[in-house]
């Protein structure tokens, strides 16, 4: 999740953290036109895409291994502001997803993770979550992000389910920002948002990020993997969705449309 309205605060905080670790942010590796074309055909926004250690960082908080692009199937779906899911979803229902939180975090992160898990489990889905105390056997590990995430204005990241039906196995959170956030509800929403990506949810407003992020309108037309409309969700903007691309720093529990989307998929 990327929070543009609070980016200035995050940037100021990250400079302090950066001084303790590195003096210069790593350069963003160039992304080839071929890769950008693949992302566009799959419905991803292709501005501000960069690569680091073989993975692409897309739409501010989505991490995709470049090697996975060829397994994704493009589709012709007209996109507006609705709930969307990826082609790959978590399988093997009913299923318990085990979540590990790194001990590098303070108790606030553990409490927020428990609250995010409670939100999902309260929906009576066939997919439930459980926090575990060991990374061994965990399906999702929540860890501190690299220090340079804050440098680039990234507050958290996650990926999408695998072709074999497992959730994405990692969520990264930017401590240089969230260590200074006192509202546990805001942190809970970010964790729930990244968990949403791990089980196959795209940004509600992925085709028009100006809806939650501000700036110019961006609409690429056809979608693909990660752009499958979820029946029963609205065809107009949804300002309270937990899967909006950018956050205003507030707490956003699941609204009625989010619950419809969760119930439809799981």
From TrEMBL:
Key words, A-Z: Hydrolase, Protease, Signal
Source organism (scientific name): Fulvivirga imtechensis AK7
Pfam families: Peptidase_M57
Any GO BP: proteolysis
InterPro entries xref list: MetalloPept_cat_dom_sf (IPR024079), Peptidase_M10/M27/M57 (IPR024653)
UniProt GO molecular function: metallopeptidase activity
Secretion signal, residue range per the UniProt entry: 1-17
Protein name: Protease B
Residue span of region Disordered: 217-236
């Amino acid at each position: 999740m990327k929070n543009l309205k609070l980016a200035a605060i995050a940037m100021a905080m990250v400079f302090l953290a950066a001084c303790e670790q590195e003096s210069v942010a790593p350069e963003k590796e160039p992304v080839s036109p071929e890769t950008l074309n693949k992302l566009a055909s799959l419905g991803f926004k292709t501005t501000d895409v960069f690569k680091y250690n073989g993975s692409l960082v897309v739409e501010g908080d989505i991490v995709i291994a470049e090697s996975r692009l060829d397994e994704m199937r493009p589709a012709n779906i007209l996109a507006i502001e609705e709930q969307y899911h990826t082609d790959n979803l978590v399988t093997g229902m009913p299923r318990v997803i085990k979540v590990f939180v790194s001990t590098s975090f303070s108790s606030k992160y553990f409490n927020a993770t428990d609250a995010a898990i409670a939100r999902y489990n309260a929906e009576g889905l066939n997919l439930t979550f459980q926090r575990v105390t060991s990374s061994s056997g965990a399906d999702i590990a929540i860890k501190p992000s690299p220090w340079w995430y804050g440098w680039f204005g990234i507050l958290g990241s996650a990926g999408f389910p695998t072709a074999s039906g497992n959730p994405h196995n990692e969520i990264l959170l930017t401590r240089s920002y969230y260590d200074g956030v006192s509202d546990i509800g805001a942190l809970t929403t970010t964790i729930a948002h990244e968990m949403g990506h791990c089980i196959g949810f795209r940004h509600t407003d992925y085709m028009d990020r100006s809806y939650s992020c501000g700036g110019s309108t961006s609409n690429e037309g056809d979608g693909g993997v990660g752009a499958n409309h979820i029946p029963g969700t609205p065809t107009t903007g949804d300002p309270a969705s937990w899967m909006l691309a950018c956050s205003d720093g507030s707490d956003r529990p699941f609204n009625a449309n989010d619950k419809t989307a969760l119930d439809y998929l799981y």
